[in-house]
């Protein structure tokens, strides 16, 4: 059974965002222990996998009739869905009400770019 392009795109974007989040922010947990050049090299290595998943995700979505704006908004929503648990669980950051407000704003953006 093949998933529809929107579901394939969302699943791949979710996976790529996990890599992206660790590439961009994961090194901050050890920032005082690693020289910046090492953090850059490790981040680039992780980001390779993000790109290897992100590029096919965008191609599937775009050829599956998602507009560029829809792809971008979908990406941003998924980014927040990945980032909040990462910030709380991996980086031990407190949950803030601002995360909820940001999420609600993104829900509004999703509505406007996906409405007929």
Architecture overview:
- There is one protein chain.
- Helices cover 78% and strands 0% of the residues.
- It is mainly α and 116 residues long.
- Helix 1 packs across helix 3 (68-90).
- It is flat.
- It starts with a helix and ends with a helix.
- The mean pLDDT is 92.
Query: In total, how many beta strands?
Result: 0
Strand content: under 5%
Tell me about the biggest sheet?
A: none
What coarse outline follows from CA principal-axis ratios?
flat
If helices are DSSP runs of H or I spanning 4 or more residues, what is the number of helices? Answer: 4
The span between the termini is 27 Å
- The percent of residues in helical segments reads over 70%
Structural class comes to mainly alpha
In N-to-C order, the SSE pattern is HHHH
Which short descriptors sum up this protein?
single chain, 116 residues, mainly alpha, 78% helix, flat
Fold topology:
Layout: H1 5-25, H2 36-63, H3 68-90, H4 97-114
Helix pairs in contact: 1-2, 1-3, 3-4
């Amino acid at each position: 059974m093949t998933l529809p392009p929107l579901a394939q795109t969302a699943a791949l974007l979710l996976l790529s965002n996990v890599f992206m989040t660790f590439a961009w922010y994961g090194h901050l947990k050890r920032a005082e222990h690693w020289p910046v050049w090492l953090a850059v090299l490790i981040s680039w290595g992780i980001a390779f996998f993000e790109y290897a998943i992100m590029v096919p995700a965008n191609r599937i979505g775009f050829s599956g009739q998602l507009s560029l704006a829809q792809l971008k908004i979908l990406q941003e929503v998924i980014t927040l869905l990945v980032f909040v648990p990462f910030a709380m669980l991996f980086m031990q950051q407190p949950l803030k009400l601002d995360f909820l407000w940001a999420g609600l704003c993104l829900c509004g953006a999703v509505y406007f770019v996906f409405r007929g």
